[in-house]
Design goal:
This protein has one domain: Rossmann fold, CATH 3.40.50. The protein is α/β, with parallel strands linked by helices and about 130 residues long. It contains six helices and four strands, in the order βαβαββαααα. Bound molecules: nicotinamide-adenine-dinucleotide (NAD). Nicotinamide-adenine-dinucleotide (NAD) binds next to helix 1 and strand 2.
């Protein structure tokens, strides 16, 4: 059976590259983003791929967590990511990036994270690190 991966923040910079890597690895990918900072072109890139699904969801609010069912991996990239505003308003960032994410972090599907086949994913992570350093 095809493995399912979920990428939160899938329309963002890091998340969209993770989506691309996972699709190339043959995963069925669900990208979740509230589009607060997501880019439409990061969705349009994959919209013709039958293994790609985009869901516009604000993860800080109530949402139907059955979408996580049968997910092999959840890559949690949704965040407030700009550095300067995080210094100017640390409480906002703490609330958004730490407090509000417990529903995602504590979801049973997250337990699968410990099963990440590191070698197989190494290429994706390496590529993403190279992108974020360039
Ligand atoms: N870009 C880098 O160089 C870099 C380097 C190291 C670590 N990171 C980390 O990687 C993560 C992603 O960074 P990025 O550069 O891709 O940022 P980004 O802003 O491009 O992507 C984050 C995505 O999360 C989405 N999002 C925010 N709040 C959400 C919510 N409540 N529900 C659903 N989606 C939501 C945004 O719309 C956005 O598309 C962050 O944790 C960041 O700190 C980034």
């Amino acid at each position: 059976m095809q493995k399912k991966a979920i990428v939160t923040g899938g329309a963002g910079f890091i998340g969209s590259h993770m989506v691309e890597c996972l699709l190339n690895e043959g995963y069925s990918v669900i990208a979740i983003d509230d589009m607060s900072n997501g880019q439409q072109e990061n969705i349009d890139l994959f919209k013709d791929n039958p293994n790609y699904t985009f869901l516009k969801i604000d993860l800080s609010k109530e949402f139907d967590d059955t979408i996580f069912k049968n997910a092999t991996y959840i890559f949690h990239m949704a965040a407030l990511a700009d550095i300067v505003p995080s210094v100017e308003n640390p409480i906002n960032y703490h609330n958004a990036n730490v407090k509000k994410w417990f529903s995602v972090h504590l979801h049973p599907a997250m337990a699968f994270l410990i099963n990440i086949p590191l070698l197989k994913m190494q290429k994706c992570v390496h590529n993403i690190l190279m992108l974020s350093q360039s």
